[in-house]
Write a structure and sequence with these properties.
The protein is an all-beta fold and about 110 residues long. It is about 0% helix and about 55% strand. It has no helices and eleven strands. The strands form two sheets. Strands 2, 4, 5, 6, 9, 10 and 11 form a seven-stranded mixed β-sheet that branches. Strands 1-3-8-7 form a four-stranded antiparallel β-sheet, with no helix packed on it. A hairpin with a 4-residue loop joins strand 7 and strand 8.
Length: about 110
């Protein structure tokens, strides 16, 4: 079992930046990692993902603003969020996937408001 703990959320003004971190309880070398978000009343959607080999993909709404990265030595994955917009407000969840197995963190709230 993999436990994931997110951190780094908070309140930020439009145009600001935040860096989310996700710490895994075990090595993430073989795991494909991702960040999802869920706004009130909406479904949980993929924001960004990074494979075990380092390939990345992003939702169209965050391309050019968000960067996902991983540090296998620290069992961690990160989401650098720049030029934040009010519509980025959501609970952000870390996800680890390998074959048919997936794990989720508890989520961290990101609020973008002036």
């Amino acid at each position: 079992q993999v436990q994931l703990v997110e951190s780094g959320g908070g309140l930020v003004q439009p145009g600001g930046s935040l860096r989310l971190s996700c710490l895994a309880s075990t090595s993430i070398n073989i795991w494909n990692m991702g960040w999802f978000r869920q706004a009130p009343g909406k479904q949980r959607d993929l924001v960004a993902a990074i494979t075990s080999g380092g390939s990345t993909n992003y939702a169209d709404s965050v391309k050019g603003r968000f960067i996902i990265s991983r540090d296998n030595a620290k069992n961690s994955v990160y989401l650098q969020m720049n030029n934040l917009k009010p519509e980025d407000t959501a609970v952000y969840y870390c996800n680890a996937r390998h074959s048919l197995v997936a794990y989720w963190g508890q989520g961290t709230q990101v609020t973008v408001s002036s």
